[in-house]
């Protein structure tokens, strides 16, 4: 077990750091060929738990990295700029998006098999029908239970969603995600339980189960700089 020498606690399939532990970091492997373009886009990193790989993208290259050794390989290259949409928790397959060739306001989605590099287009139903009803999908998030969440816009700055179960049936839909004035866009970070957003003062979770927002840390109404657990902490942008 590569984690045996670390002071961690196993809870189910997760590894959780024990408070008070000291971490030592060392550089492993060679330089990863990622091209960071300031003021254009950030390099994206996602962890593929199913394959235990770190996946990185600079918008042109998708690279799989072995985190223990630093060994890496380019899995996919493209002339069209892309973004990582999600990694399937069960299979480890990655979904990425590119601008639609004919309609730049819309996106095309593709599945990338990280083991083989095979790419296939994700078929989407018409936007004006079920399960979108006018939603223009900007992101796909696949869940461990086989469900899928589409995030997108109805109008500028109005973010909505459509949640499908494992059979493809729409179980929840809304043109408004009840995020109030919190800073949000379709590319906020997520795990298998929720999407995480921040307005600079608080950190919030939008639950895939309840489709409701919960304050995790900080405050909705006050700012500051204070360590603490949950609502006792304060942030200043």
Task: Characterise this structure.
The protein has 237 residues and is mainly β. The chain is built from no helices and 17 strands. Strands 3-4-5-6 form a four-stranded antiparallel β-sheet, with no helix packed on it. A hairpin with a 6-residue loop joins strand 9 and strand 10. It is globular, with a radius of gyration of 19 Å. 24% of the residues are buried.
Characteristics of this structure?
disordered N terminus, mainly beta, 237 residues, four-stranded antiparallel sheet, 17 strands, single chain
Q: End-to-end distance, in Å?
A: 39 Å
Radius of gyration: 19 Å
CA-based shape: globular
Stretches where pLDDT is under 50 for at least 5 consecutive residues are 1-12
- Report the total helices: 0
Provide the helix percentage: under 10%
Element-by-element helix/strand order: EEEEEEEEEEEEEEEEE
Strand fraction? 35-45%
Number of strands: 17
Structural class call reads mainly beta
Q: What's the overall average pLDDT, rounded?
A: 84
The main β sheet shows up as: 4 strands, antiparallel
Q: Main sheet: which strands, in order across? A: 3-4-5-6
Give a brief description.
The protein is an all-beta fold and 237 residues long. The protein has strands at residues 8-11, 14-17, 44-48, 53-57, 61-65, 72-77, 82-87, 94-99, 107-112, 119-121, 136-142, 148-155, 158-164, 170-174, 194-198, 202-207, 213-218.
């Amino acid at each position: 077990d590569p984690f045996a020498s670390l002071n961690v606690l196993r809870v189910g399939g997760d590894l959780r750091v024990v408070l008070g532990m000291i971490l030592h970091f060392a550089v492993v492997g060679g330089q990863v060929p990622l091209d960071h373009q300031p003021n254009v886009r950030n390099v994206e990193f996602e962890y593929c738990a199913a394959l235990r790989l770190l996946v990185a993208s600079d918008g042109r290259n998708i690279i799989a990295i072995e985190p223990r050794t630093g060994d890496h390989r380019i899995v996919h290259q493209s002339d069209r700029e892309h973004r990582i949409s999600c990694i399937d928790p069960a299979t480890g397959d990655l979904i990425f998006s590119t601008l639609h060739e004919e309609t730049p306001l819309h996106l095309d989605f593709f599945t990338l098999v990280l083991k083989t590099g095979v790419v296939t287009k994700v078929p989407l139903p018409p936007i004006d029908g079920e399960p979108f009803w006018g939603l223009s999908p900007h992101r796909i998030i696949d869940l461990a239970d086989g469900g899928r969440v589409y995030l997108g816009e109805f109008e500028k700055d109005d973010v909505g969603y459509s949640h499908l179960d494992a059979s493809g049936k729409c179980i929840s839909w809304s043109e408004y995600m009840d995020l109030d004035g919190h800073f949000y866009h379709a590319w906020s970070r997520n795990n298998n339980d929720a999407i995480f957003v921040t307005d600079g003062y608080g950190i919030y979770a939008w639950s895939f189960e309840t489709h409701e927002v919960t304050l995790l840390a900080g405050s909705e109404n006050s700012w500051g700089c204070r360590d603490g657990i949950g609502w006792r902490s304060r942030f200043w942008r």
